[in-house]
Structures are given as structure tokens and as C-alpha cells.
């Protein structure tokens, strides 16, 4: 990797709790990285790496030019808004815009009128807007709304630099994140409507539903595509309502410690984000499998697989329809199970999910290679935590680590499980004929087309 000029500093975002994965990736992929801070999903760092190197980061949701971080923002309306308005004066605008121009060479902008030395007469002051995300976790509520905070921050910038505001045809977008009495201000590098003439430039920043997953209405897709670093993954053609962010899927794969030659399985894959991310990143050194109960999700995972095969460097991946409580899969053949289990109001009722979880866990234990197999599961709820400690699950798995990640304000558990040597005793199987008759009656029977024979349970 070549060293370039030093731009930045940068702000990189990921789900809170997964910063360590991002830090490892920064250290291994970028030149001359210096981490200035890393907390609650926000990592500030400098590097002399080029934009292309930064755009290739997988653990990051997004990359911004870092502007400022301040603590002690007053909570009451009058003082808080005055404080926010004054922040513009403390920012190194020249450096931030130099970074923006490096990322968006097609957008000719200058920071202030007197700074126009080499830009030529086509360069102009940028039109801008401020977008604010605001929440209180430990302190009483703010006395102002997000709109008011954005308005007063913008007023300070406008007064200082003379930049005109445009909510829809802006050149640069400032992102303010206010948490309790802290404000983090950054400048969007990946999205400028003027640089991307065809992108629609309206609407709020990417919507995330109440479970911290992505909601991506089709009409918002073009807009969304250019706004997140991970949106450019080649396999991202069709999403389900509960799609996981590819950056989070990448982090789960890293936590699973995937090695060359591994068989990697997601038995509840939705539109296939986790196995497709694994196939896209690890390439042909692994074999990935994506299974799902719902026909619609299976079809989407299939289309994503096809899109990934056209646009990426995908390793082998198969998409299968099945019921994860009765996997049609041979015992002791899988090295890694990585799955984003159903949780939240978008994924069935709590009762249904609670009933399904123990059976899925038992199937995961059965198919994993004893002793070396590993599972990384994203789950939520006390019942799930209790199930993991209950016999027989606790005999099959060593609970190596549990920690929470913050998915847009919702805390979700990541469980890292090491498969023990304890054998899973399977109930005697039905004869093939009786089983076939039963499975015909069963809703969501497996469609095994395309599944390599080596892994298929002969009873299926
Ligand atoms: C949280 S979503 C997975 C989302 C996925 N990671 C993605 O990015 O699209 C959980 C999925 O489990 C599926 N599911 C629920 N019960 C299942 C079962 N018994 N067998 C297989 N899949 C099941 C649901 O249909 C849902 O798509």
C-alpha cells in the first residue's frame, strides 16, 4: 500500500461494541494509522492511506471527515443552542474540505472566499445542510429538538463561512451526533448530490427500524446506495425487513475466526447477508451455506448470490430452503455457524421464537465438528441467555464470551460458543417413507436443490 498525503482525521462508525474488530482492520489495512479515540461505535483516526483504501474497509458502516468532539453541551434550550452555534469557530475547516475534495474531486468547492488561490473561477462556496441525531442515555432529556440543534449548528457555520444552506441540493452534509452532553460533528465524504448527479438527494439519513436493522424501501435505494460504505457490496441486490448490516456481518465472521477450508453455515440467513459476506471476503478458500425457512427470503438470498457472483469475488455459496429446527445436514460436518437469530417485533412473536431457539441450538450442536466447531450467534432476550446455560446446551457448548452491541440504540447480545466434545444424541429417525410423508405435510419443507451430497443427511 502506498503512502499518500495526510488527510483526515477521519471518523469511522460501526455498531457500538464492535470497535475492536474495526480497530484490527484499520491496523491491518491502512498505512500509518493513529487512533485518536474509539468509543460507542465512533472511532477517530488519522492515516496517510488513500480514499480507495478507506473505502475498502469492511467493518465500518461509514467514513466521515472528523470535525470536532465536545463535551459539556448544556441540556437546557437557550444555553445548549447557543453553545452549538458557537462550535463552528473551533473547527479546522480548511483541512476538512481538503479531505472532502480528495474524496470528491468532481466537486469544486472552497472553504471561504479569500481562500481561492488555485481552484479556478468555477470553484464556489459549498451549499450545505446539517443533519442531527440526538439521544439521551444517562442524563435528563435535552431541552431542544434535533431539528433545532441542526438549525443552530448550521446558523453558526453560515455566519462564520458564508456558506448557503440547501436541504436538498447540498454539496456537503454535516452530521451531528448528540449523546447526552456530548456532540460529535463530522462531514460526509461518501455523499454529495452534486458529485453524484443521478442520486436523489432528499430525505433524512438512512432510516433504521426500531431493532437497529436496516429498512430500505425500494424508492430510497438509489439514495441509500451512495450513502453507506457497505451499500456497495456486490451481493446487496435484495433486502428483507430484518437485513443485517454487512459491516456487522463481517464483524461476526471475524469473531468466528474463519480459516481456509472451513465450512461456514448460517441456518437462518434471511437474504443471506452473513454467508454472502463470508463468501465475498474469504473467497474460494471457504464453502458457505445459507439456509432459510421463508420462500421469499430464500428467493432474495438467491438473487443476492447471483448479484455477488457477477460483481464480486465470491467463494462458493449455496442457498437452501429448510427449517433450521430440523436441518437436513449430516452430523459433525460444519466448522462455523454464524447466525443472526430472529428477535424483535419484525421476526415473529416472542413465544414462537422462544420455542424455536432450543431446537435450533441443538441442531447447531449436532452439525458442528465437536471440539473445534464454533458458533457466533446474535440474539436478544433473557430467555435466550437462560437457554444457553441450560442442560443440554451447556454440555454441548462452552460459552466463551457474551457481550452486547448497540444496534441503533437497541442492545443485542453476541454469544461466542465453542463446541465441546460431548456427543449430541439424536432421537431414532423415522423410516425414509414415513419421514417423506411427514415432511410433505410439514410447512416449509426443505428444498435441497444444489446442496452438495457430502453434507446432506441421507435420511432426507
Ligand atoms: C434476523 S433474521 C436474519 C436476517 C439476515 N441476517 C439478513 O441479513 O437478512 C432471522 C431469519 O430467520 C428466519 N427463520 C425463522 N425461523 C426459522 C426456521 N425455523 N428455519 C429457518 N429460518 C428461520 C426468519 O425467516 C428470518 O429471515
UniProtKB/TrEMBL annotation:
Q: Which SUPFAM superfamilies match?
A: S-adenosyl-L-methionine-dependent methyltransferases (SSF53335), THUMP domain-like (SSF143437)
Give the GO biological process terms.
tRNA methylation
A single Gene Ontology CC term: tRNA methyltransferase complex
Record-linked InterPro entries = RlmKL-like_Mtase (IPR000241), SAM-dependent_MTases_sf (IPR029063)
Q: What is the lineage of its organism?
A: Eukaryota, Viridiplantae, Streptophyta, Klebsormidiophyceae, Klebsormidiales
Question: What highest taxon heads this organism's lineage?
Answer: Eukaryota
Q: What is this protein called?
A: Ribosomal RNA large subunit methyltransferase K/L-like methyltransferase domain-containing protein
**GO molecular function, a single term:** tRNA (guanine) methyltransferase activity
Q: Which CDD domains match?
A: AdoMet_MTases, THUMP_AdoMetMT
Q: Where is the Ribosomal RNA large subunit methyltransferase K/L-like methyltransferase domain?
A: 233-384
Note down the stretches annotated as region Disordered: 196-229
Amino acid at each position: 500500500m502506498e503512502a499518500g498525503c495526510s488527510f483526515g482525521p477521519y471518523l469511522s462508525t460501526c455498531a457500538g461494541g464492535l470497535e475492536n474488530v474495526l480497530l484490527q482492520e484499520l491496523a491491518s489495512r491502512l498505512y500509518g494509522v493513529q487512533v485518536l479515540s474509539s468509543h460507542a461505535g465512533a472511532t477517530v483516526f488519522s492515516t496517510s492511506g488513500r480514499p480507495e483504501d478507506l473505502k475498502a474497509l469492511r467493518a465500518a458502516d461509514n467514513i466521515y471527515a472528523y470535525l470536532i468532539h465536545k463535551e459539556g453541551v448544556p441540556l437546557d434550550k437557550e444555553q445548549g443552542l447557543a453553545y452549538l452555534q458557537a462550535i463552528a469557530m473551533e473547527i479546522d475547516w480548511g483541512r476538512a474540505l481538503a479531505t472532502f475534495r480528495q474524496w470528491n474531486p468532481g466537486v469544486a468547492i472552497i472553504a471561504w472566499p479569500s481562500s481561492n488561490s488555485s481552484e479556478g473561477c468555477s470553484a464556489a462556496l459549498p451549499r450545505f445542510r446539517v443533519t442531527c441525531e440526538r439521544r439521551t442515555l444517562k442524563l435528563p432529556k435535552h431541552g431542544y429538538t434535533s431539528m433545532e440543534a441542526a438549525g443552530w449548528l448550521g446558523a453558526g457555520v453560515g455566519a462564520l463561512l458564508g456558506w448557503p444552506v440547501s436541504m436538498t441540493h447540498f454539496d456537503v452534509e454535516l452530521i451531528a451526533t448528540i449523546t447526552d452532553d456530548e456532540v460529535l460533528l463530522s462531514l460526509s465524504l461518501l455523499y454529495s448530490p452534486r458529485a453524484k448527479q443521478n442520486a436523489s438527494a432528499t430525505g433524512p439519513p438512512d432510516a433504521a427500524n426500531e431493532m437497529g436493522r436496516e429498512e430500505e424501501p425500494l424508492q430510497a435505494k438509489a439514495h441509500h446506495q451512495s450513502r453507506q460504505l457497505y451499500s456497495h457490496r456486490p451481493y446487496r441486490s435484495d433486502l428483507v425487513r430484518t437485513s443485517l448490516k454487512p459491516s456487522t456481518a463481517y464483524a461476526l465472521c471475524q469473531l468466528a475466526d474463519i480459516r481456509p477450508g472451513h465450512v461456514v453455515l448460517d441456518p437462518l440467513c434471511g437474504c443471506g447477508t452473513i454467508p454472502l459476506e463470508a463468501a465475498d471476503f474469504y473467497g474460494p478458500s471457504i464453502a458457505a451455506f445459507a439456509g432459510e425457512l421463508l420462500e421469499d427470503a430464500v428467493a432474495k438470498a438467491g438473487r443476492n448470490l447471483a448479484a455477488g457472483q457477477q460483481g464480486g469475488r465470491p467463494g462458493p455459496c449455496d442457498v437452501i430452503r429448510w427449517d433450521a429446527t430440523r436441518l437436513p445436514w449430516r452430523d459433525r460436518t460444519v466448522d462455523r455457524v454464524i447466525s443472526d437469530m430472529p428477535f424483535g417485533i419484525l421476526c415473529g412473536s416472542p413465544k414462537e421464537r422462544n420455542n424455536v431457539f432450543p431446537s435450533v441450538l441443538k441442531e447447531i450442536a449436532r452439525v458442528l465438528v465437536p471440539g473445534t466447531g464454533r458458533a457466533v450467534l446474535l440474539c436478544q432476550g433473557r430467555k435466550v441467555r437462560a437457554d444457553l446455560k441450560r442442560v443440554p446446551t451447556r454440555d454441548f457448548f462452552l460459552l466463551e464470551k457474551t457481550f452486547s452491541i448497540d444496534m441503533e440504540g437497541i442492545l443485542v447480545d453476541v454469544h461466542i460458543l465453542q463446541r465441546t466434545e460431548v456427543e449430541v444424541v439424536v432421537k431414532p429417525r423415522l423410516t425414509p417413507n414415513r419421514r417423506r410423508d411427514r415432511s410433505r405435510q410439514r410447512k416449509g419443507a426443505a428444498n435441497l436443490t444444489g446442496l452438495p451430497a457430502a453434507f446432506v443427511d441421507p435420511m432426507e
